[in-house]
Amino acid sequence: SHLLMMEPTPVCAMPDPTTPDSDIKTLMTLCDLLNRELLVVIGWAKHIPGFSALSLVDQMALLQSGWMEALILVVVSRSLSFTEELVFAGNFRLDRAQCRAAGLQDLYTALKHLISKYQQMHLSPEEVVTLKAMVLANSDSGSVENPEAIQQFQDVLHEALQDFETGRHPGDPHRTGKLLMTLPLLRQTANRAVDTFCRLQLEGRVPMHKLFLEMLEAK
Amino acid sequence: KEKHKILHRLLQNSS
């Protein structure tokens, strides 16, 4: 309930009205949107029970490892009721052709694979928010100060997910496990996204915000 | 920390 209450208001895309429509404009709109979404994720992390009790160094380590997985889950959750499009924001949806034209074909394919897996499972909003918190807690950063505190942080979220599934899906005792078994694909998809944005940055075609670059560098 | 100063600042900010 706490995680559902703390869900941030969705961010809207803000395409530059002075730039004519083009593939570059699509990428610019996307990078700007994801940078603002990233700011939201950092603010949201502070409201996950247990996160703020971690040391600042560990909070940074978890976010630096898990931010893209959290962003991917935001996009996935918005796209669950769509069959063809990736819903980056209510006013910013991209289909396969648009992604291909913008050089995001690999990312489209990877995201669609993940989305269809969650669509088949009928992922609920409660599961989305819990998984989103879990990807931060479980981000496998190599440089944490207090692994015990992070383990405890993970255990609390794990317990919340198990409790929820026991009540909501009593007929499927494996549902928690099934959800946790989607995390490798989520990480793989996030890595694909990081690669994509690193490539865009190297190509220098799209300006990126400092925060987004800083977080990409941490990867 | 110096390298990741924006994240550091955002986390220190209480809002």
Describe the secondary-structure layout.
The complex is a heterodimer of chains A (219) and B (15).
Chain A: H1 2-5, H2 23-45, H3 56-79, E1 86-89, E2 92-94, H4 96-101, H5 105-121, H6 125-137, H7 147-168, H8 175-180, H9 183-203, H10 210-218
Antiparallel strand pairs in A: 1-2
Helix pairs in contact in A: 2-3, 3-5, 3-6, 3-9, 5-9, 6-7
Chain B: H1 5-12
Shape of chain B: rod-shaped
Share of β-strand residues of chain A: under 5%
Terminus-to-terminus distance of chain A: 32 Å
- Give the termini separation of chain B: 20 Å
State which percent range the strand residues of chain B make up: under 5%
**Average residue pLDDT of chain A:** 96
Fraction of residues in helix of chain A: 55-70%
Number of helices of chain B: 1
**Roughly what is the average pLDDT of chain B, rounded to an integer?**
80
Rg estimate of chain A, integer Å: 17 Å
Silhouette of chain A: globular
Structural class by helix and strand composition of chain A? mainly alpha
Give start-end ranges of low-pLDDT stretches of chain B: none
Order of helices and strands of chain A: HHHEEHHHHHHH
- Percent helix of chain B: 40-55%
Number of helices of chain A: 10
Number of strands of chain A: 2
Please identify the structural class of chain B as seen in this structure.
Answer: mainly alpha
